[in-house]
Design brief:
By secondary structure, this protein is α+β, with helices and mostly antiparallel strands. It has helices spanning about 1-60, 60-75, 85-100, 135-145, and strands spanning about 80, 105-120, 120-135, 150-160, 165, 170-175, 180-190. The radius of gyration is 41 Å and the shape is rod-shaped.
Length: about 190
Amino acid sequence: MKLEVAANRSRIVVTLTLVLALLPFLYLVLQLLLLRHSYVQEIDNIQPRTARLLGMLQSEERLREASRKADVLLADIAYEAGRDRAATAAAMQRDVRELIETAGMSVAGSQILDAEKADGYDRLRLDITAEGNIDALDEALELLQQMSPMVYVESMRIKPLRARRGRSASNDVLEGDPRKLNARFRLFSLRLQ
């Protein structure tokens, strides 16, 4: 009986020794598997970004062309960012006054209003009062629509001007154009920041 217990004891000691020797090996294998799993996840996270970058590199010329077109379009819509806001507003005022006068209206007054800031751009605002007939007003609005960078009409108030009566030898006669009017424009244009 003692022999069996001693044999069992030696088996237990050998088994425990093997298990204790295998534990660090199993720990090492488990750590390597966890490390591999983290690397696989990192690779999976990097692959879409790498694919996007490779796609951008392949379509670089098309992206540059689209950027050039966007710059041209933006130049038609807004004033460039490099210019001073006050100088840009003054240039806008001068251009609009010339345009209105070219259309056949006379500018009675103009004022640069405070600019409004927004995300990425400033709204340069202008208040102009002009007088002329309805045909000149139509022409002025058409020319404003063609202006570059674009000028937007925020509001417009139009009042007819009363015709004055003059005396002739026999009866009263209306003087001047009966279609004459006074127009007050609130205009704005965009300036990139």
